[in-house]
Amino acid sequence: MNKLFLDFDCTIADSVKTYCNVYNSYYKERKGFKVADHSKVKRYDLKDQCHLVDHQETIFSSKEFFKHLEFMPHAKEVIERLGCKYELVICSIGTLDNISYKSQWIKNNLPFIKNVVLVSTAVEAASIKMDKSSVNMKDSIFIDDHVENLLSSNAELKICFGKEFEWNKNWMGHRCFNWKEVENLLL
């Protein structure tokens, strides 16, 4: 297993924290606004903290989101070290705007990663389910924060990343709560 597939949102990048911060900036003048606290998010759509957003892609597909997007703690340095042992592939899903901004963020912040698979959700409108199962991860390692992506993958070793949320609390396999744990497991 010399190939390592990495999810982007909530694995490499602290998308929940950034989303809440951008939400607070965008909606602070709106009636009914309450400050969103990223540490209290429980729902995948973030509606429990960001209740004024009609559709989460309003923020996830914005330039502002990617302008402020930060790495998860220790992600960049651990990923750089993993790159000495593994062929790294980032695998992520999003709208066309989201993956366009995401590819630029990856290019600017992780220029040593040359393999990126970005799956557009636009195809889902045509009644074709697009998920990470369409990516062949045979004989590889896959790290993702979402159980559905892990379960649908054919990766040999699947690791659920990060703290427990509604979308991953039932994972029974390997789990790494942070990048230091990933480093200890894989290096």
3D structure, described in words:
By secondary structure, this protein is α/β, with parallel strands linked by helices. The protein folds into two domains: 3-14 and 71-186, Rossmann fold; 16-68. The chain is 32% helix and 16% strand. It is built from seven helices and six strands, in the order E-H-H-H-H-E-H-E-E-H-E-E-H. It has a six-stranded parallel β-sheet. Helix 4 runs parallel beside helix 7 (179-186). It is globular.
Query: Which whole number gives the mean pLDDT?
Result: 93
Order of helices and strands: EHHHHEHEEHEEH
Class based on secondary structure composition and strand pairing: alpha/beta
Beta-strand content: 15-25%
> Main beta sheet: strand number and arrangement?
6 strands, parallel
Distance from N terminus to C terminus (CA atoms, Å) equals 13 Å
CATH architecture of the largest domain: 3-Layer(aba) Sandwich
Q: Determine the CATH topology of the largest domain.
A: Rossmann fold
The largest beta-sheet arranges its strands as: 3-2-1-4-5-6
CA-based shape: globular
By CATH's scheme, which homologous superfamily of the largest domain applies?
HAD superfamily/HAD-like
SS elements, strand count: 6
Helix content: 25-40%
CATH class of the largest domain: Alpha Beta
How many domains? The number is 2
